[in-house]
Amino acid sequence: MAACHSVNPARWRQVLAGVCDAFAGRFGRVEPRRSAAAFVTGLLADIEVKTCWQLAEQAGHARPDAMQRLLYRAVWDADAVRDDVRTVIVDRFGDPDAVLVVDETGDLKKGVHTVGVQRQYTGTAGRIENAQVGVFCGYASRHGHTLIDRRVYLPVSWTDDRDRCQAAGVPDGVAFATKSELAAEMITGALDAGVPAGWAAADEAYGNSSVFRAHLRQHQLGYVLAVSRSHLVPLDGGKVKIRADRIAAELPAPAWQRRSAGAGSKGPRFYDWAWLDEVTTDADPDDGGNHSLLIRRNTTTGELAFYRCWTPQPATLAQLVRVAGIRWTVEESFQAAKGQVGLDQHQVRRWDSWHRFTTLALAALAVLAICAADATDDEPADTGLIKLTVNEVRRLINACIIHPLSNLAHRLRWSQWRRQHQARARQAHYTRRLNLELQP
Question: Which SUPFAM superfamilies match (predicted)?
Fold first, then answer.
């Protein structure tokens, strides 16, 4: 019986309602307001693919029109809803020592019309593919972690083609921005909104940018940013710059200390760490902060990782190691967002639709993150069980709260609708192809 104390369907129902109620006032009409709540609930549901068709069927709608209208034509501000969801997250997870973690993730796509899509490198595939890339900001504290903001990345091939942008609904004022610039925008937005945070963390795609690092220092935000092994580290007051891997190779054995970067699925994540606090900045030598280089060595393979660090006040090695270890939370959030709430399953092409779908997916992810955190707080000691994960929470939410519609007539109507729609689409494709072939 004690093992079930953390399973609290009544509390989870309150969390789901609370997240949806937080942004309910952003809709001027009751129909899109109800559709948005049903959309978030559907993203949590145990359905095969999280598209408008499946979400509408799950919600009991006769057709997908309401869900499609919510993403395309309904009047509501996705950024305002994002702000409301972020407020709910901060109310539950807020901590002045929290870490803002930025990273990107890609979704493989076909065709050329989906906003931001082109052949580009994505870590999702580990190679260059036709893909759409989004840059995200996560929030991680001792209370929990999840994603709080998003930006779609527009390559130069898009921003230089205004007709293409116009066709995808990209606002005229949107110009090219690097991924690190998008990350800086999200961090600035969070801090300006009063989100409590003391640190930023990111991988080397962001850490190698001196402009990004300077931006964080301007906000007096401490950082632990991964950099490449070839990164030039300024030493001796900036008079010399030495490659990070060369510095590591010349360190004596006593310079390394074994510490845990936090608990992982297989226990504490122990690495050997070396810390050089004689580093200077390569951009603003009078910033008054504390620059350092942190080096991590895998205890089994000897693989090295390097971090540029800065703090407005003196920090300890333990603090920097903690922040470096927290960066993995954004990867966990990506995995949960895609595997549990369908972040990568949208079938939308336009700018507004991407932001709307993604925002509602972040709302669904927030529900899971908060429910998992509540379950951890309520869990008795020594149950012999691992803590409830967001994956398990979603399974239990489906078992206890979201009851799938089993009405046979409803299922048959949807089966007929899908087949009819697909037949019309096929005929339209055949006609279009025939017309193209007949053109001189």
Answer: Ribonuclease H-like (SSF53098)
